[in-house]
Amino acid sequence: MVLWPIESLTEANAGYKTEELFPDPAFLGSNGGGEAIAVRQGTNGPELVLAPFIGATDDVLVGGNSLWEFLSAFGSGKIWKRRRD
Questions:
Q1: How does pLDDT run across 69-84, given as a tens digit for each residue?
Q2: Percent helix, strand and coil across the chain, each rounded to 5?
Q3: Which of 1, 38, 58, 78 has the highest Cβ tally under 10 A?
Q4: How far apart are CA 63 and CA 16, in angstroms?
């Protein structure tokens, strides 16, 4: 898992065309595979999610409403069973 430096977030999101392809989340880093670590506005406040670099917004996996919840879901593997509401 890699979180990108804050000074590169704008450039990285522009490079991945997140506003065009994923208008909801802002990418913050990568899981080292095919998904971005992202933050988006959920129904209960901000959510940390995994969003595919190639895919659709329906493929987003919800990690939780806090960094702790996200890391717990990611580390335990539970995130792979969660879909976007």
A1: 999 999 898 988 866 5
A2: 35, 30, 30
A3: 38
A4: 21
- Encoded amino acid at 30, one letter: S
Q: Where are the domains of the chain?
A: 38-80
Q: How far apart are CA 66 and CA 53, in angstroms?
A: 22
Cα 11 from chain centroid (whole Å): 16
Residues present in the chain in total: 85
Residue 67 token pair: 């960094």
What are the tokens at 19? Answer: 């506003």
Q: What is the pLDDT of residues 16-49, one digit of tens each?
A: 888 777 777 899 999 998 899 999 988 888 999 9
